[in-house]
Specification:
alpha+beta; 6-stranded antiparallel beta sheet; 5-stranded mixed beta sheet; 19 helices; 41% helix
Length: 666
């Protein structure tokens, strides 16, 4: 059923045609049978249609190959508001509602009047601008400027409010300048009457108009032409649009009233939309503030929880240290470890410290072999003497020989003065030789002679020097295997491995990992003066990782993560391999194409790591049943038992020192 007349303003090549309709469905297309005929090859025969349902309008695409576009977006079906502009091919079409009177159904175009066409183009541009503006302050200013432009007014005012309460929100003149003291420059009586009645007020000469000439404001302001239009917002009069001219009469007529009422209709919709948008933005901001506050509270609670956890961990660590201290003869607080594997190491060191026999420390790279050497030194009777450390893999053979044994002036080119060797410098104390498995056979022979005779002869010297040195060596290589292959002297091996001790890799003593993390974080805090904490998720990832680089890798991982963090190390701050729980050594492949020696490891070490990894998986799946685990691994039960003993992985074995009888396995 018809709900009154509506207009379609069609713009093409600068020409504007107005079509008025009272029907509920209007077709648009290239066919002459359509209600709006658009002769353009880009437009389908029936391109689209406008459907009216109640007081609303819907734009419906009719399956055109070049879809109709609204707000520069192709649409299939979309709500259409008065003032909206959509495009069909090269045509722009605007929906409008007439303000007064009803146009004839036969009236399909406006008079070919340049002023009328220009007015329509101006109004279309204004309607489009209002639809695109969502900031309420800028929108109100645009409405007033548009009213002044359309009506050729001197000043314009926009007032908003409810009932009898309203205020001037915008006051502008034709030069787009702010009108000072707007409350004193507008006839509030006229504005209030329009607010209350919802009916527009127009006077061409207020001084002679019987309705207004007795109003004090009209007299004081010497008003001539006045036009005041109600603005309906969400169906209620929520404001008025007021324009005037104090110098000229006969400025505003029905034409200006019609345009201003159409503008007021557009303004009401735009103001409602802008307020809704502002309310949504405000609610979103409040919600975001609430979420931020929740995040802050969660962070604070998490921090408190971590502090309590750290305190409990510290108490537990102290109790564990005291418990270990009661069971060991010496203090090993410089070595972090309270688990079964490290207690067995401490039990061995208790027996080794009081002797002067050579000690061989074996274990993977990064397990802390030098810490063990220093623990032996600091607890022994040699504590007050020298402790000298040298890495045999870091120096060429000739240079290492001169470092170990010293030289006389003139012994070789560049020997301009006598120099003490490390054996002579460490006399009375401890000499720690790391990576002894990388020493050449010739140098091994000379080292053996020193150990047998207790004497060294510097290069170029004729006399030997007596030395009293306790030798501690370390290696991550399998010396027994090297002996069988002829790469390491058998007599030297037995000489340096009188007291062997094997350090377990970090993956075999995961119970010590939280204590190591706490120690390293405390060291970082001391060096950086910044408090650093670890999230529970990050700790879970650290415990689950296999650590092929052992304690040294853990220390470097924490240092890197602390730099990336803002005081709390999260899972995201950890490296990819730690987060994924996989390392290149677990699969026996080197992603960078390097060989084992370039990664400071050996093929036997990698095989041992892989064996231990697979044995642990089978052991866990078999729930500790050795026969089932052996079957999963394709081994006999006896072979599995031997490997469990070899790697110290048998939970049924007592933590006795005999478990540490080294084989030299790295």
């Amino acid at each position: 059923m018809s709900q009154g007349t509506f207009l379609l303003l069609v713009t093409h090549d600068g020409q504007v045609d107005s079509h008025s309709f009272e029907k509920d469905v209007v077709s648009i297309g290239r066919s002459r049978d359509c209600d709006v005929y658009l002769p353009d090859r880009l437009i389908s025969r029936t391109h689209c249609r406008i459907e009216r349902n109640g007081t609303g309008f819907t734009l419906v695409d009719a399956g055109a190959s070049n879809p109709v576009r609204l707000h520069n977006q192709p649409v299939v079906r979309a709500d259409l508001q008065p003032g909206d502009v959509f495009t069909c091919g090269n045509y722009e079409i605007a929906l409008s509602l007439p303000v007064s009177g009803h146009a004839s159904v036969d009236e399909t175009s406006l008079p070919n009047d340049p002023r009328s066409n220009q007015d329509l183009l101006t109004f279309l541009a204004i309607a489009r601008a209002l639809n695109e503006e969502h900031d309420l302050t800028r929108l109100l200013t645009q409405i007033v400027d548009a009213a002044i432009l359309l009506c050729a007014a001197e000043r314009g005012f926009l007032m908003l409010g409810n009932g009898g309460e309203h205020s001037v929100e915008v006051a502008r003149n034709f030069a787009k300048e702010e009108v000072l003291s707007p409350e004193l420059n507008v006839s509030r009586t006229i504005a209030r009457r329009v607010f209350e009645s919802g009916i527009a007020e127009l006077t061409t000469n207020a001084q002679a108009d019987d309705r207004f000439r007795d109003l004090q404001s009209v007299t004081d302001l010497r008003l001539r032409s006045v036009l005041c239009i109600p603005i309906r917002i969400a169906g209620q009069v929520g404001g008025v649009l007021y324009v005037d001219n104090r110098l000229q009469q006969q400025v505003f007529h029905s034409r200006e009233q019609t345009f201003l009422m159409s503008l007021a209709d557009q303004a009401g919709v735009a103001i409602h939309n802008a307020r809704s948008m502002a309310q949504l933005n405000s609610q979103q901001a409040e919600l975001q503030q609430a979420l931020d506050r929740v995040d802050q509270l969660n962070g604070a609670l998490q921090g408190q929880l971590q502090e309590r956890t750290a305190e409990l961990l510290e108490v537990r660590e102290k109790l564990s240290a005291q418990h270990v201290g009661l069971r060991t003869k010496y203090n090993y607080q410089q070595i972090v470890g309270t688990g079964r594997a490290m207690r067995a190491v401490f039990a061995l060191l208790d027996k080794y410290i009081d002797t002067d026999d050579p000690v061989l420390v074996t274990g993977e790279s990064g397990t802390g072999k030098e810490l063990v050497a220093r623990a032996i030194y600091t607890q022994s009777r040699r504590k007050g003497k020298s402790f000298i450390s040298e890495n045999c893999a870091a120096l060429p053979e000739a240079l290492l020989e001169s470092e170990l044994f010293g030289y006389q002036k003139g012994a070789f080119t560049g020997a301009i003065a006598n120099k003490k060797g490390l054996f002579e410098a460490a006399s009375g104390g401890v000499l720690f030789l790391d990576e002894v498995g990388d020493m050449s056979l010739e140098l091994q022979k000379k080292l053996l002679r020193v150990l047998q005779d207790g004497e060294v002869r510097p290069l170029g010297a004729r006399e030997t020097l007596k030395v009293d040195v306790r030798l501690i060596t370390a290696t991550n290589r399998n010396l027994e295997e090297m002996v069988r292959e002829g790469a390491f002297r058998e007599d030297l091996y037995y000489r340096i491995s009188v007291l062997p001790v094997r350090l377990p890799p970090l993956r075999e003593r995961r119970e010590d990992l939280p204590h190591l993390v706490k120690r390293f974080l405390a060291d970082l805090q001391h060096s950086t003066n910044n408090r650093i904490r670890l999230s529970p998720d990050a700790m879970d990832k650290l415990v689950a990782y296999s650590w092929p680089g052992n304690v040294r890798e853990l220390q470097n991982e924490l240092r890197r993560a602390s730099i990336l963090s803002d005081g709390i190390i999260l899972e995201a701050h950890l490296s990819e391999q730690v987060r994924s729980g996989k390392s290149s050594t677990q699969v026996g492949l080197l992603a960078d194409g390097s060989v084992p020696a370039e990664r400071n490891t050996t093929l036997p070490d990698m095989v041992a790591q892989l064996e231990q990894h697979e044995i642990k998986k089978a052991w866990d799946k078999a729930e500790g049943n050795k026969s089932r685990a052996a079957e999963m691994l394709g081994l006999s039960r006896f072979a599995l038992q031997r490997k469990l003993e070899k790697y110290g992985m048998d939970p049924d074995a007592p933590p006795a020192p005999e478990d540490q009888k080294g084989t030299g396995d790295a």
